[in-house]
Amino acid sequence: MTNWVAHDHRGTIGLRVGCQFDLRSSNTTTAVLQVAPHGDQTATLTAEWWDGGIPHRPYLDEFANRCERFELPAGEVRLAYFADVSVPAVEDEQAWDARETPVDELADDLLRWVLPSRFCQPDELGSDAWNMFGSVTPGWARVQAICDFVNAHLAYVHGSSNPWTTAADAYRSGQGVCRDFAHLAITFCRALNIPARYAFGYIPDIGIPAPYEVMDFAAWFEVYLSGSWHTFDARLNQPRIGRVLVGRGRDAVDVAQLTSFGAVDLLGFAVKADQIA
Fold first, then answer.
1. Fewer CB atoms < 10 Å away: N or C end of the chain?
2. What average pLDDT does the segment 22-45 reach?
3. Domains of the chain in sequence order
4. Are β-strands 155-156 and 175-176 bridged in parallel, bridged antiparallel, or unpaired?
């Protein structure tokens, strides 16, 4: 049983979030889906359900992300997950007085968030990070300066990166998708000894003007300042309403929406994040 964070329902918005995968496999294949809202956030789960008729079981990974393990049969299948949640009717927090913690004062369990990971290479981009942001006032302003740079430096281009694209690759190419924006910002933060972790989930089109992009999962990141974690988003680079966290990790390798332990073709994919009464 997942312990959900209690939240006062006054001043909240109801959302229905979820996704659908159309898959094809030539053999019975084990697969893991990570698409359910994380238990540690301000969003409150009120209902959830799976469609597809395939047996599955839940577990929590090392980051407390909710994972669902399936045994996919040979042939074509459709897996769908939906959840109703309530979220605070306010934009992401802006804490401009939040300060950095000197690395020698960081708790032991925070040190992994300043180390290199598969897609984030502060050791490779460290000189660039210090040259560009070393003189910026430490704390929230410095992280926001990183977001501003990444947002301007990378062009958002569908299909411009692949599952093996690193932060350094995106930095040099000048383009990417939302995970690349997050990876590059995380890399610069870690190079400056600011703990940063990857996050992804659902973001509805609330409080922004049309036209809207096709709904998809979104990637952002969290930074440790003034003793707590704060949300930043280098790709959107503006506070949003209704963010629903699904997973956290060192980078995207820890929070893949679908992991298969055999050949599986993705025939179709859709994401939903809509406001409900």
1. C
2. 95
3. 12-90+257-276 (2.60.40.2250), 103-240 (3.10.620.30)
4. parallel
